[in-house]
Design brief:
Structural class: alpha/beta
Distance between the termini: 32 Å
Number of domains: 1
CATH class: Alpha Beta
CATH topology: Rossmann fold
CATH architecture: 3-Layer(aba) Sandwich
Number of helices: 7
Strand content: 15-25%
Order of helices and strands: EHEHEHEHEEHHHE
Radius of gyration: 17 Å
Strand order of the largest sheet: 3-2-1-4-5-7-6
Number of strands: 7
């Protein structure tokens, strides 16, 4: 049976940028890729589009990226910058986890300059807990647990320390590059050069991991326990 990988971002594009090279690599191996954005990220709209129009475009971009990976894109209806900190959103994410039963969940690190990123970290952490306990009729689907990997994001640098390096294939890198170009802001933002930063970062992390391309992820301290049977 092929694996499922779930990448959850605060906005459309967050997960695609920070875990996309690995996701593309696994997609080429036949694994199922699911991206979930808690908001569209519509308030970074270009001058020629309204916030509402850009939200529609971002949803299309999420789908186009996922389709190139033969995967699935989900975008919740919460507003960019106004993501709620409540039980409802946590249960909605938990339902997604139970439905797709991923091997790994990728999401934001706990510290960020962006409030939606920090809140998404807390939401996903709680949702992961809810997905694995008996909540009766509050949550549909069978219980499921998947480890959380926290992605490297330039907005989430405070306290981020790479711990896991996931190798990405050359073919996965090329597919990821192609898919990223479906996102307008990745190639046209005037505030940050997203495309060059993240694609070059894959070379940097790859060099440290002694491979051509890699993506780095942080873990919480309690996750950093390895058992070695023999030396």
């Amino acid at each position: 049976m092929n694996n499922v990988y779930l990448a959850i971002g605060a906005h459309v594009g967050d997960a695609e940028l920070t875990a996309g090279c690995f996701l593309a690599t696994q997609a080429l191996k036949g694994d199922k890729i699911v991206t979930l954005a808690l908001t569209a990220g519509e308030r970074g709209n270009p001058p020629n589009l309204s916030v509402k129009e850009y939200a529609q475009q971002k949803r299309l971009e999420a789908n186009k990226f996922a389709q190139l990976l033969k995967g699935e894109a989900l975008v919740f209806d919460y507003e960019d910058g106004l993501l709620p900190d409540n039980l409802e959103v946590r249960l909605k994410v938990a339902e997604v986890i139970r439905k797709y039963r991923p091997k790994i969940i990728f999401t934001h690190w706990k510290n960020s300059m962006h409030k939606d990123h920090e809140l998404t970290h807390r939401i996903v952490k709680d949702a992961s807990f809810f997905a694995n306990i008996d909540l009766g009729d509050k949550l549909s689907g069978k219980r499921h647990f998947a480890p959380l990997y926290f992605s490297e994001n330039w907005e989430d640098e405070d306290g981020f320390k790479p711990y896991i390096y996931l190798k990405c294939s050359k073919e996965g890198f090329q597919l990821w590059q192609k898919a990223l170009k479906e996102h307008w802001f990745v190639c046209h933002s005037k505030s940050f050069n997203y495309f060059d930063y993240y694609t070059h970062l894959s070379y940097v992390r790859g060099a440290l991991a002694r491979v051509e391309h890699a993506e780095a992820f942080a873990l919480l301290d309690y996750q950093k326990k390895r058992v070695i049977d023999e030396l």
